[in-house]
Amino acid sequence: MLRSFVIATLLLLSPPLLAQQEALNKTISVNFDNRPLEKVLESIHDKSGILLSYNPESVPLYQRVSYSADDKPVKSILQDILSPLDLEFQSVSK
Question: Each residue of 82-93: pLDDT tens digit?
Fold first, then answer.
């Protein structure tokens, strides 16, 4: 059973749904070599501006992740990283 992972985007001056889609479609480059998931998520937040919200008891934050992508949408990167950990994400607007 997939555990949920919630992504909330907080962008001012844009309609919430549109801003959320734009943030998830933003392309970034990342390179993680055996880094804890917690640090990976922090890096994705820093590069994309997306607010990541999750229950630390349900997400394996110390799970090591190796992953690399160049100019790839944030949504695809999150799917690639979370899927092997049996996690999925949902986007919500505030």
Answer: 999 988 888 776
